[in-house]
Design a protein that fits this description.
The chain is an alpha+beta fold. It has one domain (35-148): tt1808, chain A (Alpha-Beta Complex). The chain has two helices and eleven strands. It has helices spanning 35-50, 99-112, and strands at residues 13-16, 19-24, 29-32, 58-60, 63-66, 69-72, 75-78, 84-90, 116-120, 125-131, 136-140. The radius of gyration is 15 Å and the shape is globular. Pfam families: HSDR_N_2.
Length: 149
């Protein structure tokens, strides 16, 4: 797997048939290790270990409906009341973060209504604070630490 612009973490990789699997600490099971999953697992550990996000408030691949289509979010962090706080879209390291990716996440967030959006390919990370009243996205220099939200 590619080296990423995220801190390393102790990961458990096993092989099953033709597939490599990585242990997911939230789902508590081995997941097929794809390039996108590699980024998602790194970013998940970054949120928990570096930025102090509580593991209990994070969900992976949460289903949501948009225009009668079933969509799945990569990571979603909730506040203590269960409201979406931070929506994270992960792409494989070889996938550039383009305007189309930003639009995809913005569309998801019209339903989810998280206050912050993050897009990462493991190399580049972008974060915005969302103001739903003005429909504006304020770019942030850094991803907020959990206890500062």
């Amino acid at each position: 797997m590619d080296a990423l612009n995220l801190p390393p973490f102790e990961h458990k990789i096993t092989k099953s048939g033709d597939n490599y699997l990585i242990f997911d600490i939230l789902r508590r099971k081995n997941i097929v290790l794809t390039p996108e999953e590699w980024v998602r697992q790194h970013f998940l550990h970054y949120l928990i270990n570096e930025l102090g996000y509580p593991k209990s408030l994070i969900s992976i691949e949460r289903g949501t409906n948009y225009n009668k289509l079933q969509k799945r979010t990569d990571l979603c962090v909730y506040d203590n009341s269960g409201n979406p706080l931070l929506l994270v879209e992960c792409k494989a390291a070889y996938v550039p973060v383009t305007q189309d990716v930003v639009k995809q996440v913005s569309v998801y967030n019209q339903t989810i209504k998280a206050k912050f959006i993050v897009i990462t390919n493991g190399l580049d990370h972008y974060c915005w604070q969302v103001d739903f009243e003005t429909r504006q996205f304020q770019p942030l220099q850094e991803i907020p630490v959990y206890n500062q939200l």
